Amino acid sequence: MEQSRVLAALAALANGTRLELVRALIGRGPAGMPAGEIARHLDVSASRLSFHLAQLEQAGLISGRRESRNVIYTVDTARMGHVIGYLLNDCCRSDPEVCACCAPDASSTPKAP
Predict the structure, then answer these.
(1) Between these two residues, 112 and 22, which has the higher pLDDT value?
(2) Which of the 8 DSSP states describes residue 112?
(3) Could you tell me if 59 and 22 are in contact, meaning their C-beta atoms sit under 8 angstroms apart?
(4) What is the DSSP string of 46-78?
(5) Is residue 113 part of a domain?
(6) Does 108 fall in a domain?
(7) In whole angstroms, what is the distance from residue 5 CA to residue 30 CA?
(8) Range of the domain at 54
(9) pTM over 0.90
(10) 110: Cβ–Cβ under 8 A, 6 or more apart, which residues?
(11) For residue 107, what pLDDT is reported?
(12) Can you give the pLDDT at residue 109?
């Protein structure tokens, strides 16, 4: 993945509301979540939600599809994986200590050196 695309994705994720939005969408899987439900879940106005959705869409991390009168949003899990993979493999050069922190059974808090 190109560095510029990774930087755009990381910049989009560097916001608490957008990070919570992605967290909510990941939990829904391919079924996604309608925009109105996202707004209620995050307790944000429609205009504010629209801003955050646009940032994540421009970064290629989410996409929306129209179903009747609703727009359903989902996370592009492949793109998210590429961003994480870039950090682990390209930036961290697959450092074993860094990779160990990402193991499914690893503690959520890093150990002190």
Answers:
(1) 22
(2) P
(3) no
(4) HHHHHHHHHHHHHTTSEEEEEETTEEEEEE-HH
(5) no
(6) no
(7) 23
(8) 3-100
(9) no
(10) 101
(11) 55
(12) 52
